[in-house]
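Field: sequence (string)
Field: structure_tokens (string)

Example rows 1 and 2, in order.
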Amino acid sequence: MKVTQVISQTMEKWPDQMAVVEKNIRWTYARLGQESRLLQARLRDTELDKRDRVVVWLKNGSQYIATYLALLEVDAVVVAIHPDSAISDVLRTIEHAGAAGIVTTSNLWERNRDALEKSRLRFAMLPQTTLSVSRSIQMSRSLDGLAQIVYTSGTTGTPKGVMLSHDNLVTNTRSILARLSLSPSDSVVATLPFAFAYGNSVLLTHLFTGAKIVIEGNLMYAHCIVESMKKEGVTGFSGVASNYAFLLRQSGFNEINLPSVRYFTSAGGPMPQGLLGKVRECFPASDFHVMYGQTEATARLTMLAPKDLDRKHGSAGRTVPGVSIKILDETGEPVPPGKSGEIAVAGANIMQGYWLDPTATERRIKNGILHTGDLGYSDEEGYLFITGRSSEMIKSGGFRVNPEEIEEVLRDQDGVSDAGVAGVADDLLGEVIVAGVVVQAARESLEKRLLAHCASHLSPYKRPQAIYLLAGVPRSANGKILRLALRERLESLHRQNTLDGIGSSR
């Protein structure tokens, strides 16, 4: 079944139910359906072929939701990217996905028009017009049933396109709903980017059930989020750990009475127990669901029920319906309860593979089983406990960032002979990005120049918070960066933080 078939049933059943609230925009499910059909007509006028990829470069909002549904209904493949993405990221995605078109704002188009017109796009759909760009080169055909490609940074330095089918999305959304039990009387304030798996999951769970989605895109205005929650009678909030930490520190989240909030969810990285305790203390009558998943598994793999938070302290919970988990040793054999190993999962929510990367797909999916790269163990009752990550990815504020991409940008600067990047533990973001560089000659203005270079070449969430001088980047005999040694060195420098400008380990 297609995603849009399920949501069309919602629209027919609850046409007058409020679907989207965004500033002065208030769309019922009937209105959302109308707006989506208008966009479908415009898309068909572009002579879009079935399974053509289309990039969606929009912020969270009513237009994003209508566009997403329109593309899926005409059997196109959604390739959503973060609204703050640098143009270099956008162009790389267009090229790799072989996108036929892009849907974006007039401002973003005009600001980046020269670069976008040189890409392989065939058309650009703006709010008031559709532009013919050029004739795109024929690329590989999408797999049957493919609905969405979600780009997530890989460990090789090149982002990978996770292929999610309609069946993946419908199955996993229904599995999550079996645990959350949402209804048309529910509502959520949406702060997580719809372009990523967690935000996309929050979007679909609410559209499937006829619930209300309140758009509040900028977490920096934390007081606005809390005000919206109170004004709209929001019943749920979903976020990564850093979202909760920020709200507690900046918004008076813990002081304002929000009696309508009945549940919270957290995913996208570990939820520190101290932070979880503070949220529960502030909202003792609200349920808190701890969740674990991967983009490659559509969204959720396990959920810890509120009733088990104290009994299974620190657990990621049990599998959602339709998912099975095994813990494997280094030989690929299952291990008994209590013993740690790699988390391997199976189910109808497992991705179709990585777009145009069969080698990486074969490494991650073996005999229909997804090897997550995460480490953990299960107890005698089947509750999962995550002990670490075999991946080198940095998880900062809910984003997964590849250090190699940042290292390449830093090494591109004159005077930089080597660079290493690591995630350093941070109470607010989980990890902050810190870089170390080896330079030919120290210069007073180097830090500012390197930070400015990163700002012009990297999306905001990929930029280092600090850059330190290193005598050398620790490497193995074959030249690979020793990530653990690098992280320990940068953690020490960042913790000391006693020098102005660029720190130095010399």
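Row 2 begins here:
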Amino acid sequence: MKHLTILFWGVMSLLFGTDLYANSGDKVSHIGHWGDDEVGLPCFHYTGTLPAVGLKPDGQKAKIPEDPWFLLGNYQMTLFTHVSGRYELITGQRAWGRMNQGKEVNTGENASVVKVLDNEGAVQETIRLVGIGSEAADVKVCQRTFGCGFAQYIYTLPNLRIERTLSVAPSCAIDGGVPVFLLDVRIRNTGKEVLKLKYEESVLAHYVPVQFQRQNDCPLNYRNEYVADRKSRVVKADVKANAADPLLIPSPQSMSMYDAYPPSLFIKLVSEGDVSYGSDGKLEALSSITLKKNEEKVVTMAIGFTFDKEIAAIDTMVQELVAAQGCAKASEGAFSTQWLKVLPSFKQEKDEALRREMRWHAYNLEAMATYSSFYKETKIPQGTIYDYYWGQHASARDNFQHALPLIYYNPSLAKSVLRYMAKRTTSWGEIRLVEYGNGYAENMVYNTSDQQLFFFMLLSEYLRVTEDYAFLDEAIEFFPYGNGGSGTMLDCVKQCFFYLKNNVGVGAHGLVRLLNSDWNDNVFVAKQAPYNTVINSGESHMNTTMAISILGNLIPLLEAYGEGSSDENRKVMVDNIVTSMRLYRTAVYDAFMADLGDRTYSRWMYFNGEPIGSQNMFLEPQSYMLQIQELPVERKKALYEEMQKRVYANEKLGARQQQDPEFSAPGLENGSRENGGFWYSLNGPAIVGISTFDKDEAWRLFRQMTFDNYAKQFPQYWTSYWSASDNIESSLMAEEEGLPDQSFDYAVIPVYCAHPHAWILYCYYRLNE
């Protein structure tokens, strides 16, 4: 029967021109399926309709965008390519800004048109290749494939076959990469008569800082100055900023909340043709084509942005990019061989689907990584709402987590992330939470208590895996970068620990204080309480279990560094740090164990003098309690058994954040976000903890957390296939399970988030040790 079922759907696929299989198994998907490109890298074939619709179990439409998007990018550029052929060209080296902002938030505006001419040159037919209502939206006409560094649209039209491919080259150095994509358009005459055509490609030059896309209160005004150099076939829009307040436009190198120096948008036509700009702000590339029967011609151009506004600089950049193409076959992305060299191969993995997914995660972390021209380092943003919707590099704890898998296959990038965040750290050990504008970093309304712990987590893993102890001797400039003093990475460790120990401190129970939030900023709506009381008295069990487990890892690594140093002063400094850390850790451990008593699982916090989580399990502290080195295996097993009953039961992806949500606030529903949702950033640490006493069970939970399982469980939502939000509605949200939060704006841009890519990949490497 199984083979008959497969045969039936295979016939249906041929009849309707649609690939019907999900990414693995026998489940049928109306969205698409995974495959490999011609060099063996993963790609997704989108076979669904547009507009994309996902129906909830009650038949209502889910709140997910109607035009799904995929990510192309390198350290210098973020490019979202939509299934409809629309794209969003985003810069992040200075402020987050969309170079071709459309009329709606989170949209870009571009067009691709083929005009069929008669013998006198009059337009007989106009074919739109881009947009929801275009030929790209018709699954019977357009084959859409999205891979590592490329997006491809193949149109089968009467008398015409058009292949439109966008390709982005990877970055091969921390400050490397080109903020440009190549667009190759192959047009073949499949009819019997000679065809005369005009091909027109355009992009709207409309720069909008992402932090201001939702409202019209940007204190800077931006205008374009256009240049069309027909000799070089370059058309560009130089973006100029002005403001009534001259202090809002400092020098280009200055830290600023707002960016007065965005890059220039350009098109360079590489093949024959002409360029122009219109009064509507569009940059255009135009090509006239005559095709004989079975003849094919190629239109090639480069589209991107540059901070070097000279035409000669654009020419040189594009010439080097064109020369760097590594693939001769038209069906591949232009830079597939370069991506093949950059990404890990996972050759040892026998499971084909798992190997493909791990390469996909590694690709997306590379594509999301963003270079800062201010800090001169590269880090991986959180994405989704923070970066791509609010225009903020937030938050520090996320940036540390995203670098965890890099230590195994791209340690230079992991090291850059550590340096980046050290440069956002003051000389007294405070790590600035949020960055926006040009390098401007602050804590906004937050006085968080856990940033130093996430720094120590990444640092300890970096040292453990790479044994690069010399990294601790590297010089670093503290925040405000360039004016905040300097020291070594070891000095940064010392000051961050001092901040944790003395500024964060401990509360009445000896547990690490909460201040106004730890990882879970739901504390703001958890309970009404006098703020001045809470910020001084609250204690976090998550912070406490993190401090115990993470310092338990870091201390012996620092000792090994000190023992290997030939500098006696350095040895004394390390010994002092280690002694202080050990005294602090012992005190916190004793306080935690006393608070735990004979309980099986940890509470959540002390809030306004009250214990919370005594009867209702919260996942946050349990994930790190499982990693406490001294905790007996039997107690870990008992804890996990309790977790299975309380937070794993009935869940399809992993443990939910909370057993029985007990708090409410506008838009915060039971089973959603920090009120009982599923989080990769909580389940990843839980898997690491479980692996310390049951590797097989950790592997089972790991597979449950993969995208492969996610798409099998929720095949009706496109948000379950190639990326995900930071959190997903749990089984407690019966009609919305598997979706990103359906309230507020979280469903506006539900992907890409680095959390799932980083934690799945890190757990894979960790479990394979």
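free_text_note (row 2): Confidence is low (pLDDT under 50) at residues 1-27.
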